[in-house]
Design a protein that fits this description.
Elements: H1 3-9, E1 13-16, E2 27-30, H2 34-40, E3 45-49, H3 55-63, E4 67-70, H4 78-87, E5 91-93, H5 98-107
Organism: Lucifera butyrica
Domain DRTGG: 5-104
InterPro entries: DRTGG, Ser_kin/Pase_Hpr-like_N_sf
Length: 122
């Protein structure tokens, strides 16, 4: 899914990175624990989070994330925005809570990072 579609499905504002909206996202992850992001994301992941501290950008850089969506209308400070611009990481803000934002992306075809084989009891 292109980042421009992520923006559309989440009615998101672009904080920075308009020039990168044609990048493809392979999957999405909703998390506020950056240790979970480091452990469970894949390349080209879009992160949905409520955290607005500088560690989010550091984690995105290490994890090769393709973009960050701040949920619940949270807006990061200028230092975080400047670092994201320097690192080439697009930032978005959506008013949706994390659960609904993740659901909207999943419903429109963007898979999660973790694929599990479901075993049904008979």
């Amino acid at each position: 899914m292109k980042l421009s579609e992520v923006k559309r499905f989440l009615s998101a504002d672009v904080i920075c990175g308009d020039e990168w909206l044609e990048q493809e996202a392979a999957c999405a992850c909703g998390a506020d624990l950056m240790s979970d992001v480091l452990a469970f994301t894949k390349e080209r992941t879009v992160l949905l989070t409520g955290l607005t501290n500088i560690q989010v950008i550091r984690t995105a850089e290490v994890s090769d994330l393709v973009g960050i969506v701040f949920v619940r209308g949270k807006r990061p400070g200028q230092e975080l925005i400047q670092l994201a611009q320097t690192k080439g990481i697009p930032l978005f803000v959506t008013e949706y809570p994390m659960y609904e934002a993740c659901g909207r992306l999943y419903k429109n075809g963007l898979q999660g990072c973790f694929q599990r084989v479901m075993v049904h009891a008979t």
